[in-house]
C-alpha cells in the first residue's frame, strides 16, 4: 500500500474511497440480487428447490459485481469528496499543495486495484460462476440451452472430405443445432455442405451427438444424402444422382466447438474477452459479420478503465462549497451521472453498429466524452 501510495494524502484518500466503495458495492449488489431472487421464485418447482434457486442467484454475484464496480466507485468517491468539502478537509489539502494534476494522479493510483478487481470478476470469476449457475439450474429443471430461432442455432463451418475428416478444402458447411445440453451434448443436428461453386454436395442429420476430448464431434444415428452431378452433353441442364447412407456413429472434424455454440446462445456483453476474441476470429475466417462482437470486445477491454473516468468525474465535487448543496444531493447527482453514462454507453453501441463505425472508436467515445466533461468541470470549479 505504501509503495502504491507514497504520500500521506494519497493513503488517506485511498482509505476513505475504498471504505465507501466497499459499502456501496455491497449495498448495490445485495439490492440487485434481491430482485434476481424475486424473479427466480417463479421458476421454483419440482427438483428446483428454493435453496438451489438461491444458490443459482448467488453464483451470479461476481457478474453483478463487475457491472456495478464503476457506478459504486463513482458514488463512493462523490460521497467521500462531498464529506471532505463539507468539513473543509479538501481545502486543507489544496492549501498543502494538492492541485488538480496531483489529484488526478492520486485517483489513477487508487483506481488500479479496482481495475484489477473488475478484470478478475469479469474475465474469470464471473464467467466461471455464471456457467456453474446455469448448470445447476439446467440439471434441476432438466432444461437445455436454446436459441431465439425456432430452428435452433446456425453456424458456418469449413468443408472437409466426404468422411468429415482430412484437410480443409474449397467449399462451405452450414451446421444447424437444435439445442445444446449439458456436458457438451447437442441434439437435432443438420449439416448442409456446398462446394466452391455453391452446388449442394451432401445433407446430414442426426438426433444427437457429443464433443469428445480429442476435439471431434461424434454423431449418433446419422442419415446422410450425397449428391453427385452426372456428366451430360448439355451443361445448362445438369443431372444429379442422390445416394442415402446411414451411420450408427459418425465422427467429424470441425472448427465449431461447444464454446462457439454456447457463445451463439448468450449475448456478447456477457462473454469474456478471450471468448470474444476467439469467436471474432472464427467469424472473420468464415467471412461473417463480426461488428457486434467486435464492439462488445473493445467495450470489455476499455470497461475497466472507465473506473478512473468515474473517479475523475467525482473529483469536481470536492471543490464545491458547502452552500452549493448537501451531501445527499451530491450523491444523488452522482447516481444520475452514473446512470447517464450507462445509458449513453449502451445507446452509442447501437448507433455505432447501425452506422458501421469502427468498433474501437464506438467503444472509446463514451468514456472519452465523460472524461472530457470531468476535465471541463475540474477546470471550472478549480477557478471558482
UniProtKB/TrEMBL annotation:
The chain crosses the membrane at residues 12-35, 68-85, 106-125, 301-320, 327-344, 356-378. It is a multi-pass membrane protein. It is found in: Cell membrane. It comes from the Bacteria. One of its GO terms (cellular component) is ATP-binding cassette (ABC) transporter complex. InterPro entries: LptG, LptG/LptF_permease. Keywords: Cell membrane, Membrane, Transmembrane, Transmembrane helix. GO terms for biological process: lipopolysaccharide transport; transmembrane transport. This is LPS export ABC transporter permease LptG. The lineage of its organism: Bacteria, Pseudomonadati, Pseudomonadota, Betaproteobacteria, Burkholderiales. The gene is lptG.
